[in-house]
Amino acid sequence: MSAAAENILEVRDLQTQFNTLDGVVRAVDGVSFDLARGETLGIVGESGCGKSVTALSILRLIPPETGRIAAGSIKFEGEELTTLGEEAMKRLRGHRISMIFQEPMTSLNPVLTVGTQIAENVVRHMGVPWRAARDRSFEMLDLVRIADARRRLDEYPHQLSGGMRQRVMIAMALSCDPQVLIADEPTTALDVTIQAQILQLMLELKEKTGTAIVLITHDLGVVAETTERVVVMYAGRKVEEAPVTALFEEPLHPYTRGLMRAIPRLDIEADAAGTRPRLQEIPGLVPRLTQAIPGCAFAPRCGFATERCRLEAPPLIDVGAGHTVACWEVDRVRASAL
Amino acid sequence: MTAYIVRRLFATLPVMAVVALFVFFLLRFAPGDPAAIIAGEDATAEAIAAVRAKLGLDRPMVEQFFVWVLQLLQGDMGVSIFSNLAVTRLISQRLEPTVALTLSTLFVAVALAIPIGVVAAWKARKLVDRLVMGFAVLGFAMPVFVLAYVLIYFFAVQWQLLPVQGYRPIAEGLWPFVECLILPSVALGVTYMALIARITRASMLEVLAQDYIRTANAKGLATDRVLLLHALKNAAVPIVTVIGIGIALLISGVVITETVFNIPGLGRLTVDAVLKRDYPVVQGLILVFAAAKVLVNLLIDISYAFLDPRIRY
Amino acid sequence: MTAITDDLALPPRRFSLPTAIRRNPTITFGAVLLAALIVVAIFAPYIAYSDPFKLSPINRLRPPSERWWFGTDQFGRDVFSRTVYGARVSLIVGLSVALFSSAVGLGLGLLCGYFRQVDSIVMRIMDGLMAIPSILLAIALITLTRPSLGIVILAIVIPEVPRIVRVVRAVVLSIRSQPYIESAIAGGTKNTKLLLRHVLPNTLAPLIVQSTYVCASAMLIEAGLSFLGAGVPPEVPSWGNIIAQGRTFFQIAPWTILIPGAFLAITVLAVNLLGDGLRDRLDPRLARRL
User: Fold this and answer.
1) Cβ-count burial C110-140 (b if 16+ within 10 Å, e if not)
2) What is the pTM of this model?
3) Residue A283: closest CA among chain C residues belongs to which residue?
4) What whole-number distance in Å separates Cα of residue A247 and Cα of residue A279?
5) B274, B276, B296: which to substitute to probe chain C, counting the most C Cβ within 10 Å?
6) Alpha-carbon torsion A287, A292, A298, A304, what sign?
7) How high is the ipTM of this complex?
């Protein structure tokens, strides 16, 4: 258990809700986790499980007309963010906590040069004159290994490829030496080969700058390669948390197991006829989040579910070595084959 | 970039050619006998023939066309049937008031409507927004001359703050000049403002929903920078387009506004010419107005290159 | 394994008028207002309590009162009756222009979208026509002809057609580039069948929306022309005419201008609202957000 002083980010019982025509959607329903200084934390789950909303909630980027943080606390270096004034939040964003998004094609402003978009961040938060900010932009482009950086400064986003744009996003996010970088599916929209490059880049930069990273993704492969610790989310709740090796060696939550089983595997031998075993999907659908779910959210789709699971939400059980899981039937799950 | 400008310039030529052709053929192919109508109800056969000769309608069509085109290219737009003055001279005499009115309306409308639209988009669905949209809907439905009379009734007749009508050239002093232009500009400009405010709001709303605005907010940038630099610059192209389209509204409105406020400009000239059936003057005015509109649209096309780098490169 | 319950609740599909009204306030308001005005126009002889042409110099320039609801003009004519009859002209012009320009515009737009050669010629002409401000275009034709309602309608149709052609053409072009049209052509479907079954239905929604705007525009242009004295003949009571005749004595009898003016504004507003409401409703992107 890391000492409290080591945690740069502490999220406790976060609840974020949206007002829709069909009612109140509980996108994040009581999620808690810590992020240690310099650590890489992965948040994984399928679309709609609330992982992006969690990230947006940390930076309070949810538009007030659409939704709000209904409950919970988010502490950054000991400071409570949920009650912080908007001006103070603005000073934090892009400066001490940065965020990059999934779609590099549309996340950069098409009518401003790359250099301007990076430099304005530096000017805003470091208060340096424009010249100095431009030099810093050049440094950053160099850091993310964009060739011919001087020329690129004055180019527009549409003149760059997808991979390069994502590098620019990273450069922009790191321009003011943030303590936390939140990356929301940074490689999902990129080609596989570029994906690998970007992830590699992120790891190297992390070594250099010591920034803690929250990496949000639905891709278990990315998680395995880049993160140190993983949080698994389902229907707005955290269902499992473990160091990455432990998670892959022995996933404890039925949902996590389901996710692992759905990954195509190259190491299973084909039989005599040349066929491999079927990929096992998780049957059923994610629950609608407009109603409060009394029991375990995964119960309707779970092979181990009991009556208790349907009625009572399981708490997070600590099984040791930083591995927690929210399941009543964890012993049965453990005993069964992977 | 220069290639783009040159291309746009050349694109205006066919348009003006069509306008010229239309004006030419209208006289020759209008239903009924234009010469008789121009000559008037009780005209004698000789009078009608005289009009026909004056308009050059008695010559073979091909000859008419070439003579006419040659004249046009030399800047000669014909002669007024009634005053026998050169059309070009008539037009240049009345140019100043119309230009003053149009420009002042243009600047005021754009200067007011764009900020209003930006604020409405920023505070979407709140009271400010609903008020702006309400004004936009009403303003667009309000006929220019009705609004003009409403304004005259209150500001000139009842409260006597501004002159009822008339025009003072700038040579006679700045305040009299401005004073006479206030009510006409407002009457003319409201419809234009409604149009611009609406499109500004709509365009800004679309832009504010884009991912790059989310990125800008995630960088903690100041609100006015996000709105004005990040958002408005992207919203600019449709706004500028509508400003160009609205020029047509402005020109149509000028004719009516000058009539209501008794301003001796091109609009009044048009009305006088119509009522007297002085076709050469109407023809000249159409060419001038169309050319003005085409010029404005050309400037707008060129401005796109400055606003959106994707067009440039 | 537990049974999977699919608890997606779909909204009821039966059409209910109260809900439709609640969900589309703009269309309702515009349509109701417009319908009221159409009723007034059709039943003008029954609604107007006196003859709009009757001169009565002894009663000239009376302010609105119990006897003359909207007052009288400088010839003693009852403004209320004239205004009511004026509705006829505006509505007839507005609706006819909308109808004719839609018909012509639809035809031209379909041709342009479909046949490239036709397209380049016709669009050049349309661009040229659009360069001339509409009121001037109308004025040009009117200068050369004997004034009548028909001529006014024709003169307004001409500048409005290009707008419709543009809209229809845009729809046709976008549909033509769809893969399913390509496969239909490859399968040997005849042009006429393609046009009728695939292209035409998709043009109807934008066409209807545009034609409401054309209607509003036509009413404004007609009123403007009549106001300038270049529209319908002065004997015919058009709102523009009535306002024009009220100019001389405006300062002492403002009701002769302000009241017909208000009617004109309200009518145009109603048509605009109808158009806006229809556009919001029929635009497939926005329709999902109910």
Assistant:
1) bbbbbeeeebeebbebbbbbbbbbbbbbbbb
2) 0.84
3) C4
4) 20
5) B274
6) negative
7) 0.86
